[in-house]
Amino acid sequence: MPIRQGGRPSRLNPLHVLAAAVASAAVVGVLAYNFVQARDKNVATAEAWKIDGPPCPSLTKAEFDAKGYKAPKSFDYDDIKIARKAGNASCQDLKRGGGTGLFHDQACQFTGPAALVVTTKKGEFAYVPEPGQPVTVVVHDGAPKCVLGGNYKLTDE
Length: 157
Known about the structure:
- It is built from three helices and nine strands, in the order αβαβββαβββββ.
- By secondary structure, it is α+β, with helices and mostly antiparallel strands.
- It has one domain (1-157).
- Strands 1-7-6-3-2 form a five-stranded antiparallel beta sheet.
- It starts with 13 loop residues before the first helix and ends in a 9-residue tail after the last strand.
- The relative contact order is 0.16.
């Protein structure tokens, strides 16, 4: 900024101020647009993964083992170990609050696990849905909730 005689700054050029304001408004507009697009995508994803089925039949891990159930197909997802007897799985992080929250839960859908063990920081949780029955598991703060039903289907792609 030019300095006038006497040590005082000169006046700001109004065109420079206007240009800075327009540029700032454009940046804010782009950020707001991107935020809305991301929020709408998160809401649509949460809605697509929302399953309101009855709870999966559950057992303690000791009962599961005593009855001879097996879940040999396992994988880790976001610090959660998931084991199943059969079928396929698809997992997705979901923003809480129907897709608008700051934090997320982990969700997995299964085509028909027959036997399922979910291990989180809160323990081991065992479920025994009927063979071929799709299920959805959502883990919220380390506690899984398993419901009968799901949208995940294998495709021939």
